Amino acid sequence: MATEKTWQFDMNRAYVPSSLAEMAKYVLWYYKAFLTGQIGGAVSGLWTLVGSSDAVTGALDGVDRWTATYNAAKLVRAASGSPHSWVVLKSPLILGKYYYLLLDYSQSSNDYEMNITLGADGAPTGGTYQAAPTIPNSSGLGNTDFALSANNGPVKLHGQLATDGSFNVFMSRDNTGQFASVMLFQVLANYKGTDSFPCWFYQQGDSTLAHGVGYVGTSPWGLEYGTKGIARAPDNSQAIVTPGAILPVSTYVPSGPDSFDGSYIDWPLWIGTRDSTTRCVKGRLQDITYFGGGATTGAVDNPSGSPSFMIVNNFWFPTNAAPAL
Amino acid sequence: MGITYEKTWQFDMNRAYDPGVGAAMSALEKYTLWYCKAFLCGHIGGATQGLWTVAGSSDGVTGGMDGVDRWGTTFDPAKVVGSVSARSWVVLQSPSILGKTYWVLLDWNSTVPGTYDAYLTLKMDVQAPTGGSATVAPTMATGLGSYMTQSGSGNQFALCSYASPRPGPMKMHGMLATDGSFIILSSRDYTGAFFSGFVGMVLANCKAADQYPFYLSLTADITLVPGATTGFGYAGTLDNGLYSVMRIPTGTASQQYLYQIKPVTTRLPDGPDIFDGAWMNYPFWVGDNTVGTNRYRTIRGRLPDIMVHPGGNGYSSKYPVNSGAVDSQNNPTWMLVGDLWMPTNAIPLL
After folding, report:
1. Helix (H, G, I), strand (E, B), or coil: what is residue B9?
2. How far is A308 from chain B (nearest CA, A)?
3. CA B44 to CA B84: how far, in whole Å?
4. Helix (H) or strand (E) holding B32
5. Residues B264, A270: contact at Cβ < 8 Å?
6. Cβ distance B264 to B177 under 8 Å?
7. Residue B304 class from Cβ within 10 Å (0-12 exposed, 13-18 middle, 19+ buried)?
8. How far apart are CA A251 and CA B241, in angstroms?
9. How far apart are CA B90 and CA B122, in angstroms?
10. Which of B117, B309, B331 is nearest to B229 (CA)?
């Protein structure tokens, strides 16, 4: 398999947190730091920071209050209205649009959860050290898991940024064999000609590591359920409800690699929804494909050479190294 | 339904044929077979681009790989003869498809009359066949296909029921793209379904190393029952891959039994696309999941302009479930063929 996009990788970035709460802070900081090129070495397709709060001051003034070097004190969780941390990241120009991503650590009780908002219809406004900015015509994910609720220990972050601004960022807890969370943003292919917003955002964590992310079959773990996805209608008239991946039939499970090129079988994945008010097929995921079975999470397509894809439960994702899980 | 074609299609929909009361079942089979040749060669239907040519033929009297069309440009049932001995066959030669030429053999080496006269041998090669006579089909040195064995194997291509009081009336539906891709469907009037489909398709989204992305399939529901959710295109026909062939990507041999990859059935929508009014359609990929004789585990590519219609056979009462439904009564561009969407320019009369 060859990737369709050009990816920059920061795989197996290790960190040993002092507590579960501190683990979450590092994961959250890494999202910002990797996507803006502060850690991991990505130089193309970078997102830029347009505003932040460290729970002391906060504004949409381009100041990175989370700082380029990790400082746990800058990541403060508290309910909205109380001093807390947030950051707004702006995408590179994607087919004429800028996407604004708000990571808002406004959770009242759980350190491993946050609130996320995504919009592409103009710059956000407002924002203080107590209240996150407002993004026009945005969609949100509330109280979504991105870290662990138990089992503190060494973790690894795995960053993947494409030159078009698409990204996948994973977190794994060592010695679990699973990815505990993923946040991804994908510029789709094969979208309708009238679609001005051919992108899909997804964030999901399995805070108790029951299955790990990418698991198919038990809501809401799998990409196919889409309850943790965000997409806009092609005409931007509304948010699309539960956009998820369309899987191939489950009876079609191969027992080994492609006969001709030695790659593992991978099926294209399309993003769509069957919701009665936003029913549509948005487009195809690039470099994220369905894996029918036969290997476990963390396996790579070329274990002795240069891996280009890794298994995340039932899906292939790009990589340049075997993930150490 | 708001979706434009990827290929440029030429249509010959609802071409009627009725062999009349008392005619043998084979009359319908003969016309089905003759039409496949005639439409692809531009003898009927008006297609002018992407045409195939007759590289050789037999009418059961004489035969050879000499470019002679012994089946004729006008239908003559006497020229299309099914038999295990002196019989009809035709070799169709493709236009240049991505720099390659394909030869397709339709060999009606069946017993007549009986159930197995609705079967034939289908083969495809990328080398010109040799030999061939009135009693022997030409040799395809590296070709592969389905072999009629008089016991139920081979490609089904017609009906073997409805002989009384008459086998017809029937209709043929031809679609030929300018790149040589084609879809030929046949239907028996008053059944509400298509009974056969002959599909040759230049795939899209193939791997770069694939030199032979041309997919060929021929199958039928030979005992079609009126009103039943059976017939060509329903789950278990085009998707089951038993009657398909492709050259392998590197071209040294052929592979059979290519399946179509469908989307998961748990995500069935219950209505059309909200934003363009299209009935939900999912891309359709071709591959196989098993290694064996003439079988290779691979995904070869996507079928352009053929898509999965997930609301077919009993899936949802809110969906059009019957073959023949179209996306627009006034200006149809897509029609339902079992569980599949296929291009059209007219409402199929089934």
Report:
1. strand
2. 16
3. 28
4. helix B25-40
5. no
6. no
7. buried
8. 14
9. 10
10. B309
* Phi and psi torsions of B240, nearest 5°: -85, -10
**Residues A216 and A226: beta-carbon distance below 8 Å:** no
With respect to residue A228, please indicate whether it lies within any of the assigned structural domains: yes
Minimum-distance CB partner of A281 among B205, B265, B280: B280
The closest of A189, A167, A185, A184 to A281, measured between CA atoms, is A189
* Per-residue pLDDT tens digits for A264-308: 777 788 888 877 788 888 899 999 988 866 678 888 887 777 889
Find, among B267, B222, B270, B247, the residue nearest to B100 by Cα.
B247
Please give the Cα distance from B168 to B174 (Å, whole number): 18
Residue type, A287: D
Which residues of chain A lie closer than 8 angstroms to B271, CB-CB? 276, 279
Q: Is the ipTM of this complex over 0.85?
A: no
The pair of three-digit structure tokens given for residue B2, joined into one six-digit string: 């708001």
- Cα B348 from Cα B322, distance rounded (Å): 12
A1 in any annotated domain: no
Structure token pair of residue A259: 């006969």
Domain that holds residue A219: 7-318
d(CA A274, CA A279): 5
A324 within some domain? no
How many domains does chain A fold into? Answer: 1
Per-residue pLDDT tens, chain B, 350 aa: give them.
557 899 999 999 999 999 888 888 888 889 999 999 999 999 999 999 999 999 999 999 999 999 999 999 999 999 999 988 999 999 999 999 999 999 999 999 886 666 667 788 889 999 999 999 999 999 998 887 766 555 556 677 777 777 667 788 999 999 999 999 999 999 989 888 888 899 999 999 898 889 999 999 888 877 777 666 677 777 655 655 667 889 999 888 888 777 766 666 555 566 677 777 776 667 788 888 788 888 888 889 989 999 877 654 434 444 555 677 787 777 888 898 887 889 999 999 98
Q: How far is CA B257 from the centre of its chain?
A: 15
- Taking an 8 Å cut-off on Cβ atoms, the answer to whether B297 and A268 are in contact is no
Task: Show me where the domains of chain B are located.
Answer: 9-343
User: First CA to last CA across chain B, in angstroms?
Assistant: 21
Residues B299, B325 contacting (CB under 8 angstroms): no
Residue of A nearest to B261 (CA): A248
> For chain A, what is the HEC assignment?
CCCCCCEEEEEEEEECCCCHHHHHHHHHHHHHHHHCCCCCCCCCCCCEEEEEEECCCEECCCCCCCCCCCCHHHCCCCCECECCEEEEEECCCECCECCEEEEECCCCCCCCEEEEEEECCCCCECCCCCCCCECCCCEEEEEEECCCCCCCCCEEEEEEEECCCCEEEEEEECCCCCCCEEEEEEECECCCCCCCCCEEEEEEECCCCCCCCCCCCCCCCCCCCCCCEEEECCCCCCEECCCEEECECCCCCCCCECCCCCCECCECCEEEECCCCCCEEEEECCCCEECCCCCCCCCECCCCCCCCEEEECCEEEECCCCCCC
Q: Which helix (H) or strand (E) holds B64?
A: strand B63-64
State the nearest Cα–Cα gap between A204 and chain B, in angstroms. Answer: 20
Does A209 map to a domain?
yes
**Would you say A101 and A92 are in contact if contact means Cβ atoms under 8 Å apart?**
no
Residues of A engaging B, defined by a Cβ cutoff of 8 Å:
190, 192, 194, 224, 233-235, 244, 246-250, 252-261, 265-268, 270, 272, 274, 276-281, 284, 292
